[in-house]
Specification:
- It is a single chain.
- The protein is α+β, with helices and mostly antiparallel strands and about 425 residues long.
- It has one domain: Outer membrane efflux proteins (OEP) (Up-down Bundle).
- About 65% of the residues lie in helices and about 10% in strands.
- The protein contains nine helices and six strands, in the order αβααββααβαββααα.
- It has a four-stranded antiparallel beta sheet, with no helix packed on it. A two-stranded parallel ribbon has the order 1-4.
- A hairpin with a 4-residue loop joins strand 5 and strand 6.
- Helix 3 packs antiparallel against helix 4 and helix 6 runs antiparallel to helix 7.
- The longest helix is centred in the N-terminal third of the chain and has 67 residues.
Length: about 425
């Protein structure tokens, strides 16, 4: 069949074949962008769903604050007397019609107490918004540290596989030279397979960690890589100390506002025991004589059966409950801060020792054992043991760095070290 096809057509087809195209014609794969910790924080603070929900709750509290200050609406009424009867009272000839307006007047500080409770509710909402921002910052730093540690785990697994491959090559040479028994080759092959399995697991763990990080800003795609620079930058943590009053965490600010709100509600329930009067003002029209007269009245409930005692007792107990919960929150926070501070200092010391002493010693021991094995001075078991030790100390260093950054993020959260931009806070408080 090919002999019937013109030669010029075959040449065009061959030139158009993808396998014969020039390498320059093949589109290059897009470069994967690297994001830093600061970029990850910015993405989360700009797009996180939980932060948007907290902002909406703060706006809702502002609406409640506005509503708490309004007065009760006046009521307008019309009463007709002496209508629709018999004789002189048939129809509307002798009707007496009263047009009036009534107004309920709150007394004994009800409105002030209600406003105070709404103000504290608004303060609670903004404290919870700040707490949500602090939580998000901590979660991003934690997820970033875990993801970078997983990335470094991939690098460590690749190094381990490379070492296992080198060892297998050396063992093959010695087995082929009848300097080692055959089963040593099998052992080194098992070590290589184990390192390949570890690399596959580390790669999957890294993908999962990136997905977890991306979910914090509401993204599903993980088309990015991570900058590991900040992961290896550590400094001696400050000693544990009391949090300054000017830097009070949002959690404790929230509990201060909650106790104040409960106290305002208690004041309101006490004030509610005194009934509110209703004043009536109107005009009465006499159809029979075409005369008019003003009508003034007042009504006041008699607090005989309902003196609001149950609501007062409930509100008093809720003040006690809120005060106790505030104290519990303060104690729990201090305990959590001290625990994380201790673990942060421990992780820092471990990382320092591993980096300055243990890793260099393990690398030197592995190099000497491999050189000695190649020269026939050491057994294969010595090389395998040195290789395993080097892998372990590198993994310990990676874990110590991860722990350092996670505990550092938790300490920053508990001490409210992170503060939002001033412009952003002003915009939120204006809502």
């Amino acid at each position: 069949m090919l002999e019937n096809i013109p030669v010029w057509l075959l040449c065009i087809a061959l030139l158009a074949s993808p396998s014969l195209r020039a390498a320059d014609d093949v589109p290059a794969a897009p470069a994967i962008a690297k994001i830093t910790l600061e970029a990850a924080l910015q993405r989360a603070l700009s797009n996180a769903p939980q932060l948007k929900a907290a902002q909406a709750a703060a706006s809702a509290a502002k609406g409640s604050q506005i509503q708490a200050g309004v007065w009760p609406n006046p009521e307008i009424g019309v009463d007709a007397e002496n209508v629709g009867a018999q004789g002189d009272y048939s129809g509307f000839k002798s009707a007496e019609i009263t047009y009036g307006v009534s107004q309920l007047v709150e007394v004994s500080g009800k409105r002030g107490a209600r406003l105070a409770a709404a103000d504290e509710e608004h303060a609670i909402a903004h404290a919870e918004l700040e707490a949500a921002r602090l939580d998000l910052t901590r979660d991003v730093k934690t997820a970033y540290a875990e993801a970078v540690a997983a990335k470094e785990g991939v690098a460590l697994a690749e190094k381990q596989r490379s070492l296992a491959s080198e060892v297998l090559a050396n063992v093959n040479k010695r087995v082929n030279a009848a300097a080692e028994p055959l089963f040593q080759r099998s052992k080194s092959q098992v070590a290589l397979s184990t390192s390949e399995m570890a690399l596959d697991k580390a790669t999957r763990d890294y993908a999962i960690a990136k997905h977890r990080l991306a979910s914090l800003w509401g993204a599903e795609a993980v088309d990015f890589d991570l900058d590991s620079t900040s992961f290896f930058t550590i400094s001696a943590p400050p000693k544990a100390q009391a949090v300054p009053a000017l830097n009070k965490p949002a959690d404790l600010v929230r509990w201060d506002a909650e106790v104040a709100r409960k106290e305002a509600l208690y004041d309101y329930e006490q004030a509610a025991a005194i009934p509110d009067p209703r004043f009536n003002v109107g005009m009465k029209e006499f159809r029979a004589t075409n005369d008019r007269a003003f009508v003034v009245g007042v009504s006041l409930p008699i607090p005989v059966f309902d003196m609001n005692g149950g609501n007062i007792a409930r509100a008093r107990s809720e003040v006690t409950k809120a005060t106790s919960e505030k104290r519990l929150a303060e104690v729990s926070r201090q305990t959590e801060l001290e625990r994380n501070q201790q673990e942060l200092e421990s992780a820092y010391r471990q990382a320092q020792i591993l980096q300055s002493q243990m890793i260099p010693a393990a690398e030197k021991a592995y190099q000497l054992s491999r050189q000695g094995y190649g020269a026939g001075k050491f057994a294969y078991l010595e090389v395998l043991d040195a290789q395993r030790t080097l892998s372990d100390v590198r993994a310990q260093f990676n874990e110590a760095l991860k722990t350092y950054h996670i505990r550092s993020a938790q300490v920053e959260r508990l001490t409210a070290t992170y503060q939002p931009d001033a412009d952003q806070k002003e915009d939120e408080h204006a809502n």
